[in-house]
Structure formats: C-alpha cells, structure tokens
Amino acid sequence: MNQQVDPDRAAGRLRAIPEATVARLAAYLRALAVLSSTETASSEELAAAAGVNSATLRKDLSYLGSYGVRGVGYDVEVLTEEIGRVLGAHRKQRVALVGVGNLGAALAGYTGFMSRGLTVGALFDVDPERVGSEIAGLTIEHVDDLAPVCRREGISIGVIATPESGAQLVADALVAAGVRSILTFSPGVISVPAGVDLRRVDLALELQILAFHQSRREETGAVPADPAPTAPTGDIVVAGLDGS
Amino acid sequence: MNQQVDPDRAAGRLRAIPEATVARLAAYLRALAVLSSTETASSEELAAAAGVNSATLRKDLSYLGSYGVRGVGYDVEVLTEEIGRVLGAHRKQRVALVGVGNLGAALAGYTGFMSRGLTVGALFDVDPERVGSEIAGLTIEHVDDLAPVCRREGISIGVIATPESGAQLVADALVAAGVRSILTFSPGVISVPAGVDLRRVDLALELQILAFHQSRREETGAVPADPAPTAPTGDIVVAGLDGS
DNA sequence: GGCTGTGAAATGGTTCACAGCG
DNA sequence: CGCTGTGAACCATTTCACAGCC
What we know:
The structure is a homodimer. The first copy, chain A, is α/β, with parallel strands linked by helices. Chain A is 39% helix and 16% strand. In chain A, a hairpin with a 3-residue loop joins strand 2 (68-69) and strand 3 (73-75). The longest helix of chain A is centred in the last third of the chain and has 17 residues, at 203-219.
C-alpha cells in the first residue's frame, strides 16, 4: 500500500530489479546493438526493435536509474554500457559446459551465448571418443575431472547438456566443485542444495505449447490452412514473447 | 486487447486454460510417466515429481475438470490420458525443422521433442552438403522447396533453427506455405502477419539471467565458493524432493 | 482422516495516462 | 513540444486456507 522511499535508490546502489525485467534487459542490449549507428533512440524505437511495449521498456529502464533525456530519448552508447554493467558484463564469468553432443556443440557456437562477460572455461563429456578433442579452441575433458578442472579454471556457472540419465550426477559434481549457478537442458527434475541457483530450459516445452494452440485452433474450426495475407487490424506488430 | 465473454464455459466445452497452466501440463505428463508404476498419486507427490507447488498443481488440474478422487489422489493412467488429450496429443501434428546444424540435429534427437502427437515431417537446410543426406530416417530437403514439401507433408508447425541471418526469410517461407505456428531459436526479432503464432526461445537468455544473479551474489559479498549446507533463508532454489 | 477442488487473498507484472523536465 | 519517468489501474498467476467429499 504505502510506498516508502526505496533505500537502495537512496543509497546510490540499486537493487530490486524484477525478474521479468532482468529477462528483457538482454533483449534490449541486442536491440541497442542493432541501433548502434544512431546516436539516440526513443523508447518507442527501442521497444519496437526489442519486440516489447514502450511503456514496459521505460519502466524497465527506470529500475536502472535515469539514463534517458526527456524530449530526446536514450543515448545508445550510454545505455548499452549501463545495461551491460547491470547484467554483470564486467564480471567475466567463466562457464563450464557439460555434455558436448549436438546440443552442447550448438550452445558453444550459439551467437551471443558466450558474449557479454561470459566465456566458456571448460568442456566436459563422458564419451572417450570426444574427450581430448577440441571445440572452439578448448580441449574436452572427462567428467571425472570436473571438480579439479572447474576449480582450476575458476568456473562459476555450469551448463548441463547431457542426456537426462546423467544430469543429476553432473549437477552433484558441479555443486561439489563449488559451482552455485547451474543451467540444465535436461527435462527431468534435478535437485540441488539450498543456495544453488538452478534453472531449467525445456526445449520441447515451447513446441508443446505451440502444438496446444494449433490444436485448439483446428478444433474450433478456424481457417483450415492458408496464409491470410495480412489482417487489416494493425495488430501485426513485431513478434513479442506471446504470439496470440 | 479486448475482453470477450468466456465462450468456453458457456458452451460446455473446456474453459480457457491459463497460459501458465498450459506450460506446466507437459511437465505433469513427464512426472506421471515416472510414476506410471503406481496406481494413484496425490497432488503432493505429483507436484514434487514435477517440481511445482501442490496447490498450483491442483488448481491447474481443476481447469481440466475433476479427475481426482478426494481422500485418494489422481489415477495416474486416467490423468495421463486426459492431459494428453487436452494438449492435443490425438491430433498428430507434423513439424518441419528448418536448419539442420548442431541445434537442429539436437532438436531432432531431443527426448520427448517429437513425442505426444508430434512428428517431424520434414527437414530443410540450405547447405548443399547437407541437402540429400538423412537424419532420423528423413531426407534433408532444400529450403527452396519448403512450400511444396510442407504442403505435401501436411506440416502445421515450423521450427526455425537456422543462423539469425536466414530466420526472417524462413519464417516468410513457412507462412507462405500455410504454416501458422512457428517456433524460432533465432534471437533476433522476426515479424509475421497477424494470425500466425510465433514463439521465440532464446538459448542465451536463461544463461544471462543466471549470470546476473551470480554476479549479484558475488558483489553482495556472499560466500566465496564452496558448497555450504547453508542458510535457513528461503533462497531461490528450484528443486523437487531430496535425492531421488 | 486425508485429499481434492476452489473461493479469496496476496503477489507480481503490464499497461495506462499524465506530470514534469529538457 | 516531445519524450521520459512513474503513480495508479488493471490483469495474470500463485498461494492460502478450508469446505466438501470419499
């Protein structure tokens, strides 16, 4: 109810950035990169380039402080710098990628996956065929050596891209190695001790959501299957997170 | 943007299922598969196996109707069947996968990616080296033939796993081929006409969120690096039960 | 007694709309 | 005058807590 003075803001430091906002900051960075040839950009332009509502963008940026100029917009360079700083780009985190199959290889090469302060510090696999070979200039190590290698390389984040069967074991090993931030692409539930931040990405999930909507659409007797050239409703817009 | 009257409940058909619930139903199916040896499961058990709160699970299932028995729990088989039906598993959608690099290959082989009513109906690429070869029993076709092949194969969902540069073109081609549901792994913004459901998955996003939290943790002078059995403070932690 | 199903409260996030500044 | 920054309204989702049924 009552809105007391934000102690963080008052103290100069900033803190409570909503989770949803954090998730969009990276998108803003990409949008800014596209607009890097311009000096300034309005919230409207930036929002369009990032695929979000301009009010959302302004509110998001307001959590970082005041980096815009009224009547003008945001200085692209300044804002890029600031968002990068907030996202922790200056911290140069080192990432370990466990499981170098197709997915792992894709991740290692994914545009921007390892940019902005993130670098792959180590690659692991169990397959003796793969161990010892190189990808992106890094030698693939055996998972058995995970703990010592992670410590040596100063790994702070682990990515699990192994088949589901090995995921829990890998997570345990990462935790034992002192890694407290883990991203897993394994669909099963993995348990980690309190204090470890575990995030799960399910590649099949979004597809299933899509299939659900498509299925509904067919059932409710929508147009069979043909591309409606373009609707008159100015609803088109750039694709956001939610298509509907 | 506009608020229509709930037509589902009025028509006797299933009511509108919240987006957040849809996103969890697939996870429940997986949890049920794990528990398939048991006859029944309580909301508590199921929730633990799926990694969610039991109240959330009960509310979610309540949108599908009453499939539980008070004092007992849910019949695993019945519930599996019902969720599958709601997700549209009986519709047997056919999916086209465009871009068969590492990511595409990973997707084609991803556990559960193509289960539950989803089958890969076509693979496409531009690379002449790849076109003509086979993956998972399917011959890779050239993207130029996308429209005719998609129509012939009855494709209703398209997945874009190409480099960013080609993504918009592929999306256009899919739309032209009558595909109205598209999943893209390309980080850039893609625009599609109204009526097309476009979902974007950014593989780098979750990692960046993780890095943000990790970075914060380091800044706020948390424990350096060692797995402490730690803190009573209800920290983030996404996990289900204890060790399997 | 135990567990589901669900109103109601709490929380979190988005959008509106406009005051206020450059 | 244009555009940011932000209270306030709105909407979605989660969580609580308990009535009702087996």
